[in-house]
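Run log // design_07
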């Protein structure tokens, strides 16, 4: 329940920022469990993982508690970060405009440079896919 600034990781860690639609949905749960289960592997690659959604911190806490998640979840209730990373898409649903969050992941190196963008990802295999990207980023063989 505190503010987080990505710049605090510059020069220290790679950062994986994955955006997901909503706490507790089947796909989002699979994705969060995948990242939680591989937390140690990401740590060995000097990489921290953050999940970002428009849910509030109380929703994140309940989601983490219910599924035993260890991945860090960030609340972007005002959509500031989502809009910065351009993961909000306006759609017409039942004749009304609706803003939808696109499942997307950004891999940021230690210099603060976005090195990889993964969009329209499959929640089930996503953590493994991102882990492979992080290994290549650090010069490790797959």
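design_07 sequence
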């Amino acid at each position: 329940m505190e503010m987080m600034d990505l710049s605090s990781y510059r020069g220290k860690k790679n950062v994986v920022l994955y955006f997901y639609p909503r706490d507790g949905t089947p796909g989002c749960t699979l994705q969060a469990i995948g990242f939680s289960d591989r937390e140690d592997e990401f740590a060995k690659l000097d990489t921290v993982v953050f999940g970002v959604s428009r849910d509030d911190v109380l929703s994140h806490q309940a989601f983490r508690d219910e599924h035993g998640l260890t991945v860090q979840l960030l609340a972007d209730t005002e959509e500031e970060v989502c809009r910065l990373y351009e993961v909000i898409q306006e759609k017409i649903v039942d004749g009304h405009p609706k803003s939808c969050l696109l499942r997307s992941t950004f891999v940021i190196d230690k210099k603060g440079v976005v090195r990889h963008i993964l969009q329209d990802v499959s929640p089930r295999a996503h953590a493994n896919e991102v882990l492979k990207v992080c290994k290549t980023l650090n010069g490790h063989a797959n």
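The chain has one domain: 12-137.
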